Amino acid sequence: MVFRFFTGFFLAGIYPVGMKIAADYYQKGLGKSLGYLVGALVIGTAFPHLLKEIKGNLSWEFVIITTSTLAFLGGILMLCLVPNGPYRKPSQKIDFNAIPKIFKQQNFRKVAFGYFGHMWELYAFWAFVPSMLHLFNKTHNATFNIPVASFSIIAIGGLACVWVVTSLKKSA
Known about the structure:
The chain has a domain at about 1-85 and about 145-165. The chain is about 80% helix and about 0% strand. It has six helices and no strands. It has helices at about 1-25, 30-55, 60-80, 100-105, 105-140, 145-165. The chain is globular and about 55 Å long. It is mainly alpha-helical.
């Protein structure tokens, strides 16, 4: 449970960092850029399921080591090869005393807890997709390829993110 908590915590940290990097590069079209970013993150979330099936039922240890290594290398590449964007704004000092003040605002609190709940349900769904497919196979005598079906079910959300932002006339 401790590792699961920290995995979720650090995964949640990917979104704001990626959005900040995107905002550094786009003054116009940021909404479209963020749609692509979120789509890529969703497909990245689905990738371990596909990796498991690529060379035939790889062990979970291999999948974890491979995806962790790829994530580490991706971070190093970002650090070394992606310079600050032309629209970068200087960072401001974090004021931890502002957190209680912000959460006293009812409108902010509603939106924040709605978002937290949405992320909880989304990641819970993604975590249980393979189990649901396994149960479906077992109870209906079906033969879904669980890793490929799991990848497809999760990755379709990433493709939808890209489709939505490309189908909009203009994005902020």
